[in-house]
């Protein structure tokens, strides 16, 4: 009787861990397993070391919440950044997107959550306290809410804006409008509505 | 001036290692990175341990070439397997597929390569020596070539068959025909041709 209906235990354990990763289906997980446990173990060793090192050294900036290898991230440490501007984003990766646009030279604050009644995230779950405490301490001239132009982003911005303005800090939202470099045919009617109401004289 | 156009170095190193995995594109790699370096580090720790353990303990069976945590895999060690039948497959995962079908109770031999002129794999590159030495030693009654019904599989089988038969060992190929449980409309004409020539009286 053949007992071997699976890979060896340690290989199955690795397969199970791979299957839990986002955007990896069962077939991809097996393809990755076979790649990692192939004759040439160098790529797997590289991955193992990279994973250990990242887990050991990459934490979160205690001021803004972005990834950092020390207590403060390189942005918060950078003396050249404009400390009068604070951009509030929902997720860590949003910091990188905005940095890559090269258009913002202020500081960031990673909120970590957005209001989402559907996912059971109400005002109680929103980590507003640390943001308000930071504003009170750092007193930026303006807070830019960059929380996304979807329902969650708008709702969260509408909730936060009065709390920030109460501290006497100017509060703004990223513009919603036509994506750059496309014709009108690529914009939905809601976006077109925002593009109209946000139109600027030239 | 903002220097932060990337994640911290150790995070970028992990991202680079993830990008080298098969079936993972740049977007998936970033999604996995953010998942692994999220506040909850438990899934990443589990993956790190599973990877280390698999690399340390999972090797290859010195007889058949399948994955094994010891010198011999559980199939080769299993006294209940029919040692008169040897099934030659191209890749390790093929062993698992055949085991899962539950229809074969003999032993396996993982060839590791198939003839493929397009990929520069000629008879010199085919690891035939270990197979022929094993046959000479173990003297199975029959060798079943399960190398696939594509061009590489056929070419490899046609090359191996005379070498095996020269040792006085019966040699067979897996049947090519209609996939089970489908209508004729799902079989291409080449498959239909094989299904005709391999027809069996009922």
UniProtKB/TrEMBL annotation, chains A, B:
GO function term, MF aspect, one: zinc ion binding
Keywords: DNA damage, DNA recombination, DNA repair, Metal-binding, Zinc, Zinc-finger
Ranges where the Toprim domain occurs: 84-179
GO biological process, alphabetically ordered: DNA recombination; DNA repair
InterPro entries, per database record: DNA_Rcmb_RecR, Rcmb_RecR, Rcmb_RecR_Znf, TOPRIM_dom, TOPRIM_RecR
Gene3D superfamilies, alphabetized: 3.40.1360.10, 6.10.250.240, RecR Domain 1
Zinc finger residue extent: C4-type: 61-76
Family: Belongs to the RecR family.
Reported function: May play a role in DNA repair. It seems to be involved in an RecBC-independent recombinational process of DNA repair. It may act with RecF and RecO.
Cross-referenced PANTHER family: RECOMBINATION PROTEIN RECR
Protein name, per record: Recombination protein RecR
UniProt gene name: recR
């Amino acid at each position: 009787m053949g007992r071997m209906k699976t890979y060896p235990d340690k290989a199955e354990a690795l397969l199970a861990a791979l299957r839990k990763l986002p955007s990896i289906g069962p077939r991809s997980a097996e393809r990755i397993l076979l790649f990692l446990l192939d004759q040439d173990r160098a790529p797997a060793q590289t991955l193992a070391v990279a994973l250990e090192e990242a887990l050991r050294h990459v934490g979160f900036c205690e001021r803004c919440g972005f990834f950092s290898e020390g207590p403060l991230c390189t942005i918060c440490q950078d003396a050249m950044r404009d400390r009068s501007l604070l951009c509030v984003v929902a997720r860590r990766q949003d910091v990188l997107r905005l940095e890559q646009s090269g258009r913002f030279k202020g500081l960031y604050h990673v909120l970590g959550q957005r209001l989402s009644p559907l996912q059971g995230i109400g005002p109680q779950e929103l980590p507003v306290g640390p943001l308000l405490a930071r504003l009170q301490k750092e007193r930026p001239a303006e807070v830019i809410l960059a929380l996304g132009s979807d329902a969650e982003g708008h709702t969260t911005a509408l909730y936060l804006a009065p709390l920030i303005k109460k501290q006497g800090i100017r509060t703004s939202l990223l513009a919603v409008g036509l994506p750059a470099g496309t014709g009108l045919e690529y914009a939905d009617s809601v976006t077109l509505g925002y593009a109209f109401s946000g139109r600027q004289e030239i």
